[in-house]
Amino acid sequence: MITMIEGPRNTGKTHLLKESGIKVYKFPFAKWYDILDLGKDKLAANAFGMGRLMLHDLDNNGYIENIVTDRSIITPLAWGVIEGRMDKRESHKLLMEMINNGIINSDNKIIYMKGDNPNGRNRGDHWDDADYEIEDRMYYHIMETIDKYLGNVIEFENKFDKLSVALFKKAVL
User: Fold this and answer.
1) DSSP one-letter code for 105
2) How many domains does the chain divide into?
3) Is the CA virtual torsion 64, 77, 109, 128 positive or negative?
4) Which residues does residue 158 pair with via DSSP β-bridges, in sequence order?
């Protein structure tokens, strides 16, 4: 089973995972984005992000028992549109293919993180200027679709306090 922690940037996904002591896999996309110089080629950047499909294939074929991911195959569906790598129609079509082919399935747990980070959104990377409202709308559409077909999306409001850490840990485990 894959437990996917998803949602807009700086809603506290990584923070809550660290604070709760949950072992997590986070694909180092930003690092490899720079090393491979993917900023010049939007299609290559999107294809690279979609490589996360391999993790789901390994899970679906019994090679992985349980894993928690900080972002997942859902991220390229949202950010592909935000970055102009694909349009909303293409993103939705890929999402439906993933659902219909069992890549994203009812055995997965998807925690959709929301929250207003008191520290802001700047991290000093390529995506600091991203529009939160557009990102939030993309994630909302994706999560609404997944929940409609699979019923396995848990919306979590991070209030950036100790209670949020405890509630998050309970939701993940």
Assistant:
1) -
2) 1
3) positive
4) 115
